[in-house]
Amino acid sequence: MATITANITLNSDITNHTISESMTMRKLGTTTGLDNATGIALKKFTSTSAVVVVEQDEVTDSKASKVYMRNSGSSKEDFFYVAINASAAAAATTETIGRLYGGDWMLIPYEGAVNLTVAPSTASDMTLEYGLFYE
Amino acid sequence: MAITTATIDITSTDLGISLNASTNLSKTGTSTGLEIMDAGYGEVTVAHGGKALLEASAVSGDRDTSNYFYLSNKATDETYYLIVKIHDQIVGRLSAGDWMFMPWSQGDDAAEISITATNGTCAYEYAVFKSAYTLVDRTA
Lengths: 135, 140
Hints:
Chain A contains no helices and eleven strands. Chain A has 135 residues and is mostly beta strands.
């Protein structure tokens, strides 16, 4: 059994409330740690075409998989659309999760029933950092 | 201008993973910090069924596309997990003690985030960071 730990800190001067949590990634409904990870990959984009970065058949459905993504750029104008969709990721795509601007990251549980796709907002070079953790 | 910083580190000595990332949460297309934080605690039970935690724009009037959403399952029993959905699509299953953080585009009508407890009672903590709230018309 492997041990994968993920910590988050959300620090804001909007309030004095700081969110700080730690989790150990475990198999669904158990205390056994997740065993598998793809490692952290980098993918360079040079067009606005949508690309599947996590395919549904990479994991077993309805488990405790998790996906990490980060826009490794620094532009706060350019972003990646991220969507739970077989083939598309754009503003009007059902279901668009949101936009990852430069430096932004996300860590979400992943059901594994539908692909995760991304699409850059610009054809200029952009790089996505991502990784999959699964049972 | 407010400054909100989101930091993550993921480590696994077993699998040789070590990463750290940090970002300041900004208004759409700018480096100006978000100014609104909406946070709270709640409980959902199996009997509740699916509950909308955050509404789609068609309901709330908000169409901000640069929001950030945090959710933590505060249950302690490992068999108690939350199913998290956007619209009718399951994002994933959040086990007891797990958290998630993601951008959230409230820019279309399918943006509703809902949660469903699969066992017992799941306490949860959530937070949303936004640039603005659109006030709705009063009722009287």
